[in-house]
Design brief:
Radius of gyration: 26 Å
Largest sheet: none
Number of strands: 0
Strand content: under 5%
Order of helices and strands: HHHHHHHHH
Helix content: over 70%
Structural class: mainly alpha
Length: 180
């Protein structure tokens, strides 16, 4: 079963199914759907039922996490899913590959990346745009070009460190001259 199908099933199931006093039950909503939508849901249900128990359990956990989210967070997750669905199959595959790579990282590295993402997403729009553009360019570079850029960054960092050291020495000398 593909990951997009799992995501679709998880989010399909994520919408409220418990009827409230003023809302129709899940069964009534299903019966009010056009026949083609009903068949699509039946097909998805059959696919869901055919999943191995561990994948169904993972879906169940994801659904529980989604239901436990505060409304604003849940709305954002649903919006992200809608955007994911609008991507081309190639783009979706890339996202899923990156997600799998992320999941394989050690927990501390994942936490570090989450923090960096929060900083980027919390930045002002122009700064965020620049960071995302830099990331896009980085991904298009060959390994050799990336190494060359790393060397340039290291050199720039060394240069800044040297400049700061020289500035501190100059301030110390000024203090000595002024105090002595």
């Amino acid at each position: 079963m593909t990951r997009p199908l799992l995501l679709a099933c998880a989010l399909l199931c994520a919408f409220p199914v418990r009827p409230q006093a003023d809302q129709p039950s899940a069964e009534e909503r299903f019966r009010n759907l056009p026949p083609e939508k009903q068949e699509e849901l039946r097909q998805r249900f059959r696919e869901l039922q055919s999943l191995p128990p561990d994948q169904r359990a993972e879906l169940r956990q994801n659904l529980e996490r989604l239901e436990a989210m505060p409304p604003a967070e849940r709305q954002q997750a649903e919006e992200n899913y809608r955007r994911f669905q609008q991507m081309s199959p190639q783009e979706r595959q890339q996202v899923l590959q990156r997600w799998e790579e992320f999941r394989k990282l050690p927990p501390e590295k994942r936490a570090e990346l989450r923090q960096q993402l929060k900083r980027v997403m919390g930045a002002d729009p122009s700064e965020r745009k620049q960071v995302l553009e830099n990331m896009r360019r980085w991904q298009q570079m060959s390994p050799e070009q990336r190494e060359e850029m790393r060397q340039k960054f290291r050199e720039m960092r060394r240069q800044r460190k040297l400049e700061r050291r020289q500035e501190r020495q100059e301030r110390r000398q000024e203090r000595r001259k002024g105090g002595g």
